[in-house]
Amino acid sequence: MNQQQLLLDALQQGAWDDYFELLKKELSKYFDIKLLTISLIDMTNRKAKRLYSSNPSAYAKGGFKDIEDTYWTDTVLKQQQVFIGHTIERLAEFFFDHQLIASLGLGSVINWPIIFNQQVVGTINLLAEAGSYQDQDLSSLETLYPWLLIPLLSLD
Question: pTM for the complete prediction?
């Protein structure tokens, strides 16, 4: 069975944990991923909620948190642009949890905004060791876009 059929089966069964694991497996074909999180974004109420984490002991899913005004917020949520950070020093400029990120051996991030109806409805967040995402081809994220959007429109 091909990956698309597996995703469709998981979706039809409402097997979200399986669905997210299949997405991670597919993304791992194109990206070095040590941590993957998927966040739901509610810009009206300025809240974010983690729907999936490949490391739930460090980054648990659930619970809304406030969205603060930062360069990251402006770039990803307002300008709807991808944010890529290559070093833990760069991440420390924008992420309050940079020490946790560093303790996990991570230092590179791709934050990809998922946009529906001209609004950011979520972000796909890939993390790996420092320098992992330099000159990264992001076209595979575009190819998977519909599959990444589905849970953001389906879960809250």
Answer: 0.92
